[in-house]
Amino acid sequence: MRAMASDLDDPEVAKAIRKFALQNALEYDGAGEMKSVLGRMFGAHPHLKKHARDLISLIQKAVDEANKIANEEGLEHVRNLLEEEAPEALEKRVKERREGLRPLEGEPTGIVLRFAPNPNGPMSLGHSRGVVINSEFARLHEGEVILRFDDTDTKRKPPSIKAYSTIVEEFEWLTGRTPDRIVTASERMPHYLAHVIEDIEAERAYVCTCTAGDFKELRDRKEACPCRNLSVSENTERWERMNNPQGGWNDGDAVVRIRTNLTLPNPALRDWPALRIQTTPHPKVGDTYRVWPLLDYQSAIEDYLQGVTHIVRGKDLMDSTRKQTLLYDMRGWTYPETLYWGRVKVHEFGGFSTSAMRSDIEAGTYSGWDDPRLPTIAAFRSKGFAPEAIRSFWLELGLTQKDISVSMKTIESHNVKAIESITPRYSFVQEPISRRLEMGIAWPSNNLSIPSHPDNASMGNRLWPAPKDGDFILLQTSDIGHNSLRLKEFANVTISEEIARVEDFERSDRRQIIHWVLDHHSRNAILLVVKDNQIERRSGRLEDVNLELGNIVQLERVGFARVTKIMDDGTPIMTYLHD
Of 22, 26, 464, 488, which shows the fewest CB atoms inside 10 Å? Predict the structure, then answer.
């Protein structure tokens, strides 16, 4: 027997491990980690540190179980378990993490922020984070948000003309406001070109014709390339040659570099590239320019010209901050205050880039940017997500540099809060099977009045014709197999191969409650459901209701859906949203 058995076998230790595991799973959306829980255990029970090796296996098992609960049964279930077992953990740690977006330090007013997408396609869910966070900071501090199109890369990320207007419209949909300014980088090329001439003349920049491989070898050895020591006049001549179509230089033959300290510890900062030759025509300005700024240079200059005071960006762009700060220091400018966020991964989507989605759409893999399988704002809107759900999701996460993995259920829970109380309910029977009503007792009314929403009386009732003896009803095939059932909002019935016999109308019966429709008070309908990255087409019968394009409904025992098409014969096609 282990000497420490009495410590680890203590029921209070097991209880603490489970508490901290559930707590961690809730805080990190089903992606809790053993090390985090171990640290909390040591903090609460320091005497267990001597048993670390044995404690790790116990904690790992509890963490795996807690994460499984969170991912399979939902975060709300984890929250309920904590509320029952350890409410103090729920109050302290969850409140601490879910504070949302805090105001900026110093409570500045009149700040200027920017959201700067590349318009090579409409917004993705990831883009919406920048829109929401920047807009909220502007609201909190009476500031401005600039929508800036960083569209100077026509080779790797060619802009899409339609994306410019789409992004503006999506920005307004997400925030309920128009951008304070709209700036398009390709239309401001003269400013960037004027600044690079200044940098060349001030010996802050030079034109380099070394190959990428040769320059990297020299850079890694902290040695200057042969181009670095050319005179201002020689660099000016080279600059003019870069811009001259008859100069003999093409894409990749020359770049403008910002002259920095070659001994800098980070190789990426040593003489970083600022502009390059790029002959691919631009959809807005054609072939007006041959030399285009790279993002680090263009963004740095534009931020200064627009008076940006705060930049919020991913922590993967820290090197961009460092490069731009070096340039600002050379020019005597003050760099904006910069805040960072970590990566947020949504389990169901994995890795999608705008360029890859655009390629797949063009190849016919997806029907368009609003294909329900894609993580685009267009798809979220088409399925029926409310903008306030996406806003509250990002604001609840706030600004943290920690990488986070979440399930779509987290975002869906925000959408339920936004739409549940105002969404009417209807009965939709998939794979319907018919049964004839045999009324053992008559329905005591001329119609069947069913609440449009169980908790919102202001939405009124749906009126069905009173079911009568001999009527045919439609049940879901998967519900057949139970002899005794309760037809929701109607009656207790006994099912046989051909008949549904009504026995009574009392609601106290403990039979399984199922949804149903009257055959003569229903219509054909189709529900599109994404499963395993494929779109399943499920046919069924919907209670007789006139739906319009764009209507959001809650289908009994199925979930929320949005009417995305109405066929010529009036058949509604609904796209499943979530449960």
Answer: 488
Number of residues written out for the chain: 579
404: phi then psi, degrees, rounded to nearest 5: -130, 140
Q: Collect all residues with Cβ–Cβ distance below 8 Å to 234 and sequence separation of at least 6.
A: none
Beta strands in 84-233 (DSSP E): 112-115, 144-149, 181-184, 205-208
Asked whether 187 and 289 are in contact (CB, 8 A), the reply is no
Q: How many CB atoms lie within 10 A of CB 179?
A: 22
Rounded Cα distance, 131 and 169, in Å: 12
Phi, psi dihedrals of residue 105, rounded to the nearest 5°: -60, 140
Closest CA to 543 of 423, 428, 425: 428
Q: How far apart are CA 105 and CA 127, in angstroms?
A: 24
Tens of pLDDT, residue by residue over 330-370, are 999 999 999 999 999 998 887 778 999 999 999 999 999 99
- Residue 437 and residue 403: Cα distance in Å, rounded? 57
Provide, for the chain, the percentages of residues in helix, strand and coil under a 3-state DSSP scheme, each rounded to the nearest 5.
40, 25, 35
CA angle 360, 361, 367 (to 5 degrees): 130
